[in-house]
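User: Please predict the structure of the protein below. I'd like the answer in structure-token form so I can feed it into my own downstream comparison script.

Assistant: Understood. Taking the following sequence of 140 residues as input:
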Amino acid sequence: MAKTTTVSLAELLKGEQFCLLTTYRADGTPVPTAMWFAVKNDQLYMATKGGTGKVKRLRRDGKVTIGPCNGSGHPTGQQREAVARVLDSASESAEAERTLMARYGLKRRLLRWALRFSKDKTDVYISVTLGLGHLVDEES
């Protein structure tokens, strides 16, 4: 008999440098993107620029899939259904940045320095929590 257990974001992405965030266009077409991430209290945080397509898609529909991938965006493990939202409050955004900085340190500082030359000056933070797709059937 199979029993159902839950998989946390920390377990799903343990030891991974990148995760694959897949958002969906209005017509249902999936759009996968490799992202840096950090997990705290079973919330996954990511940062991007405000004018990106993924932010526009997330504001329309927070349904996503998430899972491990390599830096090129090729999946390296199971992808799970999740719910993502763009963080609008300054306190939530600050928490996301602290969590990313704690994980990536100097790499994060260098990326932020390089991105200051970008046309898009808006930093946007995304929070992801697992949906019902985090339930896994295990054999007894």
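That's the full token string. Residues 133-140 have pLDDT under 50 and may be disordered.
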